[in-house]
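Support case: user asked for a sample of complex input and structure output to validate their parser. Sending the pair below.
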Amino acid sequence: MNKTLVLPIFLVLFITSILGGVIGGIFPFGGFFESPIAHIQLSAEVIPGLGITNTSLTLWISMLVLMGFVFISTRNLNEFPQRRLQNMAEVIVEFFLNLSQTISGGKKGRKFVPVVLSIFLCVVVSNWVGVLPGVGTIGIIESAETVYSHTEHKTESCNGSNHGSGHEKKEYSCEKALKEHLVVFNQMPGLGISYLSPGRGENRVDEGGAVVLVKDVIENDSKIKSGELKGKTAGRLLPIFRGANTDLNTTLAIAIVAMIFVQFWGISTLGFKKYGSKFFNLSSPIMLFVGLLELLAEVARVISFTFRLFGNMFAGEVLLVAMMFLLPFIGIIPFMGLELFVGVIQAFIFSMLTLIFGVTAISDHSEH
Amino acid sequence: MGDFIFGDLRTLSAAIAIGLGSLGPGIGIGMLAGKAMEALGRNPEAEGPIQQNMILSIAFAEAIAIYALVIAIIILFVGGTTPPATVYPT
């Protein structure tokens, strides 16, 4: 590839993506990509056929990837590695061994390595699997009625309003649920595949609109429901795969496990009484107060672990979605790189902090 | 027009949350990096430990801004139905 070609090609792609996105909609010829913004969902959704959430499924897949990596790299172990995977695994393990021994100051750092290394590998693999193409974009389309009933169950003022109605005609009376946004999909005939229908604007399905409200579809005056627009479906995408750490439950679980291990290390090294005397120090009232604050800090660590990892991963996912909307063709490329980097850094932070808290927990202050 | 600009109180509170919440971490990260550069200039041999510790501390400071971002996203997208004042090209 000629070096002088790189810059013009990049400029052409960049200008195409600006003109084809939202910003180019000003011009009459622009906005041809017409990507509507996806619905941003905080909590993980349960996949209707399987009964598990989409983040659980992705977590299992990343666990399989990690187990495959570990299995392959430990076949036929050789002192001088013939296999590159074994070399890579040795680099990672050595790095964490050195880190533990440096921070704890001696050989007693070895007992931290299994948990710290596991946390690092689990978090980094699930972060990276969450950036793969297809994760978050392939899924099941929920129909307008499903979206309506989900929102109706969640809204407090609408609960119980429809449960008594007869079976012939269901009344759609929940105002909030009727105003939910849906996106229009094109259907490939006979294949059961739908893809995002390029369209522009809201509520103009007949002119190729991309976003409709629930009430336009459910009530009978909608052209989609009456079948006039063949091959189009209005609904909301439920992704089958979604990055595991974009779910608050996963990060909370890892944080709780890390803090339980910190307490375990402290108690097993110092003994229950000595470790407890760090928190319940009965020598003076001030020290008692300090000890109770330390106890509160332990709980705050769980929360800060959880939200640090969750916030970074969820904000990264929202950033990718927003970039796909604003600069449709190439805007997402630098942010994919950022996501990969942030994934490694956050995994490293999590495991390093667990290590530091563990070393602090086994340190004995009364020996000064 | 007034509806479009001001939308809900939700939009305003989300903007304030993330705007004010990233002031502190921004200043903190700047100070951290500045001190790290200073230390690097004084002792170029210690580049490994300095760089590692700097990345670690920056991630700590950034976590505070991430908490503010999570609150802003929760305000915008949870507890109501449509995102307030969504803009679609017409």
